[in-house]
Amino acid sequence: MTYDEKLGDALEAVIREGRYRVFADLKRKRGDFPKADVVSGNESRPITVWCSNDYLGMGQHPKVLAAMHDAIDGVGAGSGGTRNISGTTHFHVELEAEIADLHGKEAALLFTSAFVANEAALSTLVQLLPGCVVFSDEKNHASMIAGIRNGRGPKKIFLHNDIADLETKLQSVPLSTPKIIAFESVYSMDGHVAPIGKICDLAKKYNALTYLDEVHAVGLYGPRGGGISERDGVMDRVDVINGTLAKGYGVMGGYIAASRTLCDAVRSYAPGFIFTTSLAPVIAAGALASMRHLKSSNVERERHQERARTLKRRLIAADLPVISGPSHIVPVLVADPVRCKHLTDILLYRHGIYVQPINYPTVPRGTERLRLTPSPQHTDADMDHLVNSLTELWGKCPIALEESHRQAAE
């Protein structure tokens, strides 16, 4: 058997399970978010995007675009290397200072993505703290799991958002043992929100560092967009905050914010930082403009939350199986990978609605879903079309609807 045949067998297994992913070929329209064209062969047709993580549409904001134009006109395209070798520009320095200020920390450290930031920071911290035990929420993102695994230290998985289970596991480790509690503020597939304050209480009681992933919350929550921890008034109690510049801020990149010593240690030891070319200055400039704008403007956040509440209310009124949650994430349970893919294909090519099927390994098997992300730019007419289209499609498969309702309620 050839190598390609072996790899082909692996692909066939994914196809048989109904979870083979096909990328939609999109052409977005500047200034017209969330509208786009989907390209198929030599043809294109207009669609509305309902699954973008550019939650506030900041990737189209005039201030962001102007800052990026100015940067590329002023300094050119690439960064020139790693941060250690000619790849640090004044845009990087300014952005790290802005991030540190956002989260009320001494310092921040930029990475090319939040995935890289999580993997690099967690693996490095575990290696630099001999005997460190990581306590990880069972629904943590793959990037956190990778970082914990690559740290090659002991770990304990606690039940999702379960304070009692976390405390039981913390009690099983001596007080003097180094510990990290790793968790997220907003869990992106279910929309759950962590009890950050209570986790910080346990961290203080059991002498643990707190490592909080605010990727799906920065820019979106809090008076200045500092995330759920800022909204809940506990940001100062969190030791390390991980965030992204690619979702609420609409550009690209990731970071950690923490003490100066912690950031310097990660900067000095993490291969994922040391050996990676830094973000292009034009990207850093756009993220900087976006963050500065959202620190002083609540218009986008307020409209975003209103749109999310309205969409949830309308889907529930239409008797569609929405997974309830307090955040801006709006999951609609399908509970079958083949049906989920078929449903999204029909939505795209017959109804002009783009939403990607979410299936294993992103979510457990049997919990496949549509993950809707309403933005401030989605209109009532967009919602009318979405809800009517989903109602029509679910009406043709009442057994699936009944099963989805059952699972959504569990």
- The overall pLDDT average reads 95
Helix/strand-derived category reads alpha/beta
Low-pLDDT regions: none
The proportion of strand residues reads 15-25%
**Distance between the ends:** 45 Å
Instruction: Strand order, main sheet: write it out.
Output: 4-10-9-8-7-5-6
What is the helix content? Answer: 40-55%
How many helical stretches? 15
Main sheet, how many strands, which sense, barrel?
7 strands, mixed
- CA gyration radius, whole angstroms: 22 Å
Give the tally of β-strands: 14
Which geometry do the CA atoms define?
A: globular
Which series of helices and strands comes N to C?
HEEEHHEHEHEHEHEHEEHHHHEHEEEHH
Task: Name a few traits of the molecule.
about 400 residues, alpha/beta, seven-stranded mixed beta sheet, four-stranded mixed beta sheet, 14 strands, about 45% helix
Structure description:
By secondary structure, the chain is of the alpha/beta class. 44% of the residues lie in helices and 15% in strands. It contains 15 helices and 14 strands. Helix 3 (90-103) runs parallel beside helix 11 (281-296) and helix 4 runs parallel beside helix 5 (142-150). The chain is globular. The chain starts with a helix and ends with a helix. The mean pLDDT is 95.
Give me the secondary-structure topology.
Blueprint: H1 3-16, E1 26-28, E2 35-40, E3 43-49, H2 62-75, H3 90-103, E4 107-111, H4 114-128, E5 133-137, H5 142-150, E6 155-158, H6 163-171, E7 179-184, H7 196-205, E8 209-213, H8 228-231, E9 240-244, E10 254-258, H9 260-269, H10 271-274, H11 281-296, H12 299-317, E11 330-333, H13 337-351, E12 353-354, E13 357-358, E14 369-372, H14 380-395, H15 398-409
Parallel strand pairs: 3-12, 5-6, 5-7, 7-8, 8-9
Antiparallel strand pairs: 1-2, 2-3, 4-10, 9-10, 11-14, 13-14
Helix pairs in contact: 2-11, 3-11, 4-5, 4-9
